[in-house]
Specification:
- The protein is of the alpha+beta class.
- The protein has two domains: 176 residues, BirA Bifunctional Protein, domain 2 (2-Layer Sandwich); 43 residues, SH3 type barrels.
- 22% of the residues lie in helices and 34% in strands.
- The strands form two sheets. It has a seven-stranded mixed beta sheet, sandwiched between helices. It has a five-stranded antiparallel beta sheet with strand order 11-10-9-8-12, with no helix packed on it.
- Helix 2 packs across helix 3 and helix 2 packs across helix 4.
- It is globular, with a radius of gyration of 17 Å.
């Protein structure tokens, strides 16, 4: 197990924002856990619903490793493996959302920032553990339905992420990620250069980019962005 400093907060706007604003006083690696976020953040400027007491809202802060390529996929794998130990059956929706029974239970936000000319990572994870009620607009949100020791779960996830950061085995991460990816073979839609396309997911490459075949027969590779799965 890695030695990790723990900061527990009753409430915060965002654990990632707190990590970056208070970075100079943190002993690295640091784990920040909040009981509630008032302005939880997700990818592409989206918000993350973070009601009090029902979720794990955490940020792991550490020095950026030389190999950061698969850090976010490694975090998704870490979350899945830690939840599996507790009896859950999570799956990954590309890029980094964790789903159970067709509903999103976890989001991941990886942010790189600099201090003193050196790069650092603030890796935020929000997991709906027992959240039962969601705002109307969150139609695909769900809960793990799991009561557990949140700090213990956070440390377990963090330890797996730091293990990859220090001794990164990309082949292992790709295989673990691929085995939990539920979008392969699915019909999806995505937007590229303001044009919407429909496609079938064929798999991922060694950079964890999504390989798709568009309905017009063109093969495409997606390195970022959102996909919508056709039900």
């Amino acid at each position: 197990m890695h030695r990790i400093s723990l900061i527990q907060l009753s409430a915060v706007d965002s654990t990632n924002t707190y990590a970056k604003n208070n970075f100079s006083s943190l002993a690295l690696p640091s784990l920040i856990i909040a009981e509630k976020q008032t302005a939880g953040r997700g990818r592409q400027g989206k918000s993350f619903y973070s009601p009090e007491g029902t979720g794990l809202y955490m940020t792991l802060v550490f020095e950026a490793p030389q190999n950061c390529t698969l850090l976010t996929p490694a975090a998704a794998v870490a979350v899945c493996k830690s939840l599996e130990k507790l009896g859950a059956k999570p799956k990954i929706k590309w890029v980094n959302d964790i789903y159970i029974d067709g509903l999103k239970v976890c989001g991941i936000l990886t942010e790189c920032f600099s201090s003193g000319g050196r790069p650092y990572i603030a890796l935020g994870i929000g997991i709906n553990l027992t959240t039962a009620v969601f705002p109307d607009e969150l139609k695909t949100a769900g809960s793990v339905n799991l009561s557990c020791d949140k700090a213990k779960l956070a440390f377990d996830i963090s330890d797996k992420i730091l293990e990859y950061a220090q001794n990164g085995d990309d082949n292992f991460i790709i295989e673990e990620y691929k085995s939990r990816l539920f979008v392969v073979g699915k019909q999806i839609s995505y937007t590229k250069n303001n044009i919407e396309y429909k496609a079938t997911v064929k798999g991922i490459n060694t950079q964890c980019n999504l390989i798709v075949e568009r309905d017009d027969g063109f093969a495409d590779i997606l390195s970022s962005g959102e996909i919508s799965i056709k039900i």
